[in-house]
Amino acid sequence: MSANPIYHLKDSYFFEVPKALWRHNWKSIQDVPEFLVAGHPEITDVATFNEAMDGKILIPQFFGELESLYAIKSGGFGISKYMLLELLLAGILLWLFTWLAKRIASGAPAKGKLANLLEIMLLFVRDQIARPAIDDKHAHADDHGHVHHASDAFVPLLWTLFFFILGCNLLGMVPWAGSPTASFSVTLALAAATFLGGFIGGTKQFGLVGYFKNLVPPIDMPVYLFPLKVAIVGGLFCIELLGLAIKHLVLAVRLLANMVAGHLVLLGILALIPAAAASGWWGTVTGISVVSATLFSVLELFVAFLQAYVFTFLSALFIGASVHHH
User: Fold this and answer.
1) What is the pLDDT of residues 121-168, one digit of tens each?
2) Residue 75 pLDDT more than 70?
3) CB contact at 8 A, 194 and 251
4) What gap in Å lies between CA 159 and CA 280, rounded to an integer?
5) Range of weakest confidence among 73-77, 144-148, 210-214, 253-257
6) The dihedral sign for the CA sequence 89, 84, 55, 288
7) Within its chain, how far is the Cα of 126 from the centroid?
8) Could you tell me where the DSSP H helices lie in 106-225?
């Protein structure tokens, strides 16, 4: 029920639509959800709750209790708006690419605008991101003329990351939805998937000990300098291990920052309209704000694709560094 506009950028436990589309008709205070009453003890009029909550569709909570519209009580598990949007997106992607895979498996060429668009994007991720970043530059064809691409094992992961991030970014352009990538928990989980992909690939390539040894470049020093070598290698190992954690953390933060920044700019531009409502410049400010918001929305559409590409490309670079010797 807070009026803070920044809350609209956060994950929440409700969907918000125009008030005319969803009205609450609580008859008494007893009908109002307990967490709302407890959070606003100064309000005793049920009409105030009805007015404040009109347009807010509360998400049923089966595994926990809400503390507020934006927080779950400790010890519980809350079903949030971003969770439902991610599940919806996952279902759409699963259906879409199952359909495409069946068409390709039949041996028939891809036909139709959608099939061609998806195939072009898939090939772009494979040929322009995965293979240049992960494949061994000195790979040669075998006796049958086939070139082994080490990246092929990671292409499904990169495809999933690219389309999932792209879908989450584009959801931010859908009215009354929201961009899950504007939540740090989401971007951090995506960065963790990149880390696990590189860790599993590196461990498979070099073994568990070999993976960590590969973090430090080989140092050739005389035997009598062995204690110094141990100190240098130990220091470099700690630095590289810290750097490994930092670069994946930065991967999560940069995606979050880029997605939140666009929403904040749009929020600031549109906030000029009510700010100018009391002045004689209302019409001029409204026109400028609407045009500016439209232009920034087009820019956000471009950023949605760009950030999906950048995240996937950096993920491919990190994985490539994990599966090759320094």
Assistant:
1) 999 999 999 999 998 765 555 555 566 678 889 999 999 999 999 999
2) yes
3) yes
4) 52
5) 144-148
6) negative
7) 20
8) 113-124, 131-134, 155-171, 184-206, 208-213
